[in-house]
Amino acid sequence: MAPKESRVYWLWAVIPVIAVFELFFQWIIPLGEPSVSDWKSAVELVAKEKRRHDLVTIAPDWESPTARMHLGPLITRRDFGRFDTSRYDRIFEISANSARSPESQGLIADMEQKFGRLTVSRYTLKHERSQVVYDFFTHLGKAVVAGTKRLGRGFIIDHGFAPRFVIRVPLTRRGVSVTYTDVPLNGVVRGYGIVDYKNGKFNSGGPVRLSVSVNGFQIGETMIHNHDVNQPFEFSLPGDGLGTVRFEISAQDYLKREFGFTADVRERVGGTK
Amino acid sequence: MIGRKNGPSKSDHAIGLGLGVAYLIVLLATAGDVGFSRDEGFYFTAARQYQAWFDVLEKDPQRAIEKSVIRKYWRYNREHPALMKVLFGFSNRLFNKKWEVLSPATSFRLPGMLAAVLVVYLLYLWGSSVFGRVAGIYAALAFALMPRVFYHAHLACFDVAITAAWLLVAYLYWRSLSSWKFGLAAAVAFGFALCVKLNAFFIPFVLGIHYLGLLFYRRLSAQNDEGQRPRAPKPWAFVFGLVIAPVIFVGHWPWVWYDTLPRLLRYMGFHSNHPFYNTAWFGENVIQAPTPIALPIGMTAFTIPTVIIALAIGGIILRLRHHLPSSLGRRVRSVWKTHGPMSRDGLDFLLLFSMIFSIALISHPSVPIFGGTKHWMPAFPFIAIFSGLALSRVTELACAVFSRVPVKVVQLATVVVLLLPPLQQTVTSHPFGLASYVPLIGGAPGAANLGMTRQFWGYTTTGVIPWLNEHVPKKAGVFFHDTAYPSVRMFQEEGILRPDIRITRIKNSTAAILHHELHMIVDESWIWNSYRTITPVKVLTYQGVPIVSVYMR
Predict the structure, then answer these.
(1) Residue B344's CB: how many other CB atoms inside 10 A?
(2) C-alpha angle A254/A259/A261, rounded to 5°?
(3) What is the pLDDT of residues A200-250, one digit of tens each?
(4) Do A29 and B446 touch (CB under 8 A)?
(5) With an 8 Å Cβ cutoff, are A72 and B439 in contact?
(6) Does ipTM exceed 0.85?
(7) Chain B from 189 to 248: CB within 8 A of any A CB
(8) What is the pTM (predicted TM-score) of this model?
């Protein structure tokens, strides 16, 4: 056999190498699954260390169902359906096989402990937690709602397939208003609005208009489009004292569409997150 | 020239059938693990309905062929032809109702399994007759042990059946190029292929291109000493096919006996305007055109064991060498040797084009793509044939390395070693076949990291049924998410799911299951909102990746 021909001939040896590679890694891959005891130990640590304004995150994201099963009440619906980390001091990240959640990117862990295939890391967020003085979401029960009887709290999935825990507003022909009284007026009204993925996926329907007024005077208005993801709105409040804050939601194309929003009044402390 | 003029020997038929029967035994033994997919539920219903018509036909043939009666029994699931559903029904009638040797579900599934057996048998036959027995054995088993093929081979669906039909027609057509009798057989096979699934309408295009290529090639061929060119093969398959196939197709399907043309046009129109269903590709939910061109070829590479793909590529390169011009540089010729016999009747082109066509067709950005790899499964047998061919080159290498070991032993060892990865992947992925991805991309966890389709069809419910049986209160309602109603009823009929459990919507349910796919988080949010919890009580995983979650109110 000529030398060049034998070199080409030996290229076929790649095939058994590929076979061995496949056999080995097919055996290795399932060993990366965290065990039940890994999860139990990780959750025990989080339960012991977690404080009121701490957030629990899961990495990678597809581990979420398993993690939520083990975490139980340690991860609330509000935490799970958050828009940002502005309301939190620290993050407890439960990570499988060294994955990182988006919230912990760029942060350095001040605590890290391994439990088999899981790692529990604690990160302190760079910005100070926003001081929320009034939460429209939690005070929804005291609000006066006009234009619909089906408004309530729940999850809407946005166009990034992220779950958002919001005030769900079915859109109507004449619009919907949600009015809160005795709202502290020092600070800003900050929040998010989203159109649900299922109805907006083909970009059907125009934007949803959300306007905020205080004591009858409009302080701001925003348009939320179908594919908007994580676009906050923020409007300054007049100053001090208490007042009536009204959210008005309307859309030209209102049929079979669902809108959701969340908002609060917060003081600005060291910049927003 | 390759190919025995008289076709495979009796011992080849015996070996092929033996491989097929062995595969059937494995399929039957593992059928109970594989849950019922959405489409299977609809086909169980259709099979029963069509059987009811046969009962009417037996008792009152005149009435059975009345338009209103045909409409009553054959209207359901008219978007697909009837053959497989009729076979499902008769199999159920014989093997379950009459002889009671199979459970209801397995009896429905048997014809689908037999289609897989046919592929295994044909692959051995064709592979061995042109490239040798070792190549034929490897081709047959490589196909059988593709994890997703193994899953589909269990089902009362059409995907493996159309794969078998395509392979059969292609094989018989190739044989018909030297024998008119096979032309007749090819025509009959094509007629029945049309009765399986719409894909069959593309078969004449593929074979027609091949035949025209043959004519063109012969025209270019050098004349012999008597000034004649090689005779062109007669197009027996096409001639017979034009006459026989439409008769078989229309004849088998009572639905089109009336208003034939409008109903056939509506049948084709349904598929040419087929809705898009969700599928995930690198984290993107693909629900409308344009669909990613690379999706079919990517999914093929990500789901068929890499050793088979590597061998198939090697096999194509080996066969290409036969078709390169003799004026090719001496250096290239000295290094890139030919392997195997010369091709007869354009076999290489037929195999290659058959392999490429199904993948190329569905790669068009306007074609709806969903359901994993099933819609281009007719390409897989041809991938397997090329892989079998390349195996023989690898055994040459092995024989050279282990020159002191008997050749047969080395050949056997090579086949076994190179079948181990597909075997391992199939065994370890069962019954989660559609969640199976090759180690090259990190298996199921790697695919989840990349945002690939995790499953479809709601068949994985089987894994959580024991939990439901144990924990759900008596007569409780359960939301079964993506598992279709008739499929859930089949779980109950088989005695797998408690009969008192009711199938309900979320709002009336005590328990809810959720099949995890990218877009299904929307459905999961309905459960969260209704149950006011995000905490599942059970999560079924495969290689650590969540497949099904169960929630309790």
Answers:
(1) 15
(2) 145
(3) 666 667 789 999 999 999 999 999 988 788 889 999 998 889 999 999 999
(4) yes
(5) no
(6) yes
(7) none
(8) 0.93
